[in-house]
Design brief:
single chain; mainly beta; ATP Synthase, domain 1; five-stranded mixed beta sheet; four-stranded antiparallel beta sheet; 67% strand
Length: 84
């Protein structure tokens, strides 16, 4: 994906898609602590614990609270499947 310095964030639950948009950064509640994904982050797969996913759109920060889930980071795409 040609992201031009951004990250494509897709957050879904088993029932529906929550968001699918370009963002500047994503902070996630990993089981071992919070971590931030920026443009050109190394690929990873991680389990998520309860907490807020925070993402930057322009100068604003938006949040989605999750109970648990998984995230895959690859090629400037962050894909989250979560229970909310």
């Amino acid at each position: 994906m040609d992201s031009k310095g951004g990250i494509y964030l897709n957050i879904s639950t088993p029932e529906r898609q929550i968001t699918g948009r370009m963002v500047g950064a994503v902070t996630l509640p990993g089981l071992s602590g919070r971590f931030t994904v920026l443009h050109d982050h190394a690929p990873l797969i991680s389990a998520l614990g309860e907490g807020d996913i925070e993402y930057k759109v322009g100068g604003e920060t938006e949040t989605v609270h999750v109970r648990s889930g998984f995230v895959e980071v690859s090629d400037n795409t962050v894909s989250v499947c979560a229970e909310i």
